[in-house]
Prior knowledge:
The protein has three domains: 2-22 and 149-256, Glucose Oxidase, domain 1; 34-145, PtsI, HPr-binding domain (Enzyme I, Chain A, domain 2), CATH 1.10.274; 261-457 and 503-572, TIM Barrel (Alpha-Beta Barrel), CATH 3.20.20.60. Helices cover 46% and strands 13% of the residues. It has helices at residues 37-60, 68-80, 87-97, 101-117, 122-125, 128-143, 168-174, 192-199, 211-214, 236-256, 281-289, 312-325, 362-368, 370-383, 399-418, 436-440, 442-446, 456-464, 482-498, 515-520, 533-541, 545-555, 562-572; strands at residues 2-5, 7-9, 12-19, 160-163, 181-184, 204-206, 220-224, 229-232, 273-278, 295-298, 329-333, 388-393, 428-433, 451-454, 502-504, 525-528. The chain has an eight-stranded mixed sheet with strand order 1-8-7-3-4-5-6-2. It has an eight-stranded parallel β-barrel with strand order 9-10-11-12-13-14-15-16, surrounded by five helices. Helix 8 (192-199) links the parallel strand 5 and strand 6. Helix 2 (68-80) runs antiparallel to helix 8, helix 2 runs antiparallel to helix 11 (281-289) and helix 14 (370-383) packs across helix 15. The chain starts with a strand and ends with a helix.
Amino acid sequence: MFLLSGTGIGDVAIGRALVLDRDEIEINLRHLTEDEVEQEVIRFRKAVSRARNKLESMRDELPEHAPAELSAFLGAHVLMLEDPLLIDQTIGTIRRDLINAEVALRRQEESLKQVFDTINDDYLRSKKNDIAQVVERVQTELSSNSSQLFALSDELDDRIIVVNDLTPADTVHFRNKHMAGFITNLGGPISHTAILARSLKLPAVVGLHGAGRLIRDNDMLVIDGRTGTVVVAPGERILQQYRQRREHAEKLYAGLKTLREVPAISEDNVRVALLANIELPEDIDSAVKAGADGVGLYRTEFMFMNREAPDEEEQYAAYSDAAVRINGSVTIRTLDLGADKQVDGGRSDAYSTVNPALGLRAVRLCLSNPGLFIPQLRAILRASVHGNIRIMIPMLSSLNELDQVLELVREVKNTLSRECVEFRPDIAIGGMIEVPAAAVAADLFARKLDFLSLGTNDLIQYTLAIDRVDDEVNYLYDPLHPAVLRLIRHTIEAGENQGIPVSMCGEMAGDPGYTQLLLGLGLREFSMDPATLLQVKREVLRTRVTPITDTTRKSLYDSDNNSLRSLVENARTH
């Protein structure tokens, strides 16, 4: 028996390993004559068309009960196969360089990945994996190389798949094959693979580098999704312990659906708001099905990326749709792109940033580009008459930035008034606290804002000076670091003193292991992926907040925080 560790999702899976290797598609450079170019372009277009048709067929055949995330991911991949940045640029390379489609596509893939690498937001940067998967599908069509994944028999008989990575299309293919769980070499806590695993309630360990080399076909495996551990060749005693834990977890998950209409109120009568993070229109359905009290984070970036910027009318339609369909507040985060200067995802070759995480991004980018920012503000304000919409400004670091944003909002309101365009004049404006400077000065920001929202993904990275998607340092990523917890408490306290709400929309908010800890720190608004909302609600319902508060706040100033770590571990094992 031996153990392997990665990033865990879900609970327990037990089964025999099915180790799969995607056949590496060999790509060789082939120079074309002028007479061959147009025929090569036709070959490429046909391959793209076949790949797109297969994805559309998978999406159309999804059953009604399939998680909305599956349709959203497949739809995103279909859109990528229609994106001029991927398709037209590849064709341009074929014609300009007189080379075969496979090499031209590979070059464009690398170019697009470099753009995504400049984006500081973890969630957005992880989307470069989608490019790789879409490109792989086209390369497969070009080479007529069928994936081993799709040559499997009809039933997987509770096997645990061990593979380099799983695409959304793979997941659709496996949906009715009784897969017990999966292990991938690639991926992280916010990768598409992890998101799909959560939505499908599949135990998984992702980012387990070298899994395919260390695990053999038919090895007995145990996936412990809570700890991110894979037990290879466990003994009978260990197997029995995990079987009992799995049975217990299955009973708990079966009861979660009954909590949908139950208010999130603790045992000692503390009311908690549970909100959803959304990105695509399909996510709204997931939020409604989970019984979310509203939307705490509406990411707007994907209306802008890899395309021309959407105009005001397109944005207005999207924001209005969310406001009408969500029963509660809808918090729209203004554009939070990274350091790339061009909205369509391209960059000037003359422009480069040594550290894009500290460069022109989020509110800085918006203030430097009013032509980008003002149409979005106009669209949000116009949509505000259709529901309870709020505006949230990302990555605030100075009061001067905030003053500029507030003045710009005032100017947009005045313009709309002159145009006799309806909007809510009292629309709430809040700021994301994700830079340590903003957390330390949260009391100053709270005086000028209607609400605050803790973006813990960035706050933790900036505070600890680490990149959690960098394999060499992500072991330092620690949400329980005393400095992080004190900044969280300081921000919540600033909101309490000013009488404004403070929410959290980072990954901590959606992890039920941290629910009691965050309640103890004073958090009363949680925003998360809809797939985890009912698990967090269960934790709220069984928590007595008063004693947790005493324990938590005393521990903030202990020489160690072992009691807080124990609190989190206990929550994850019960």
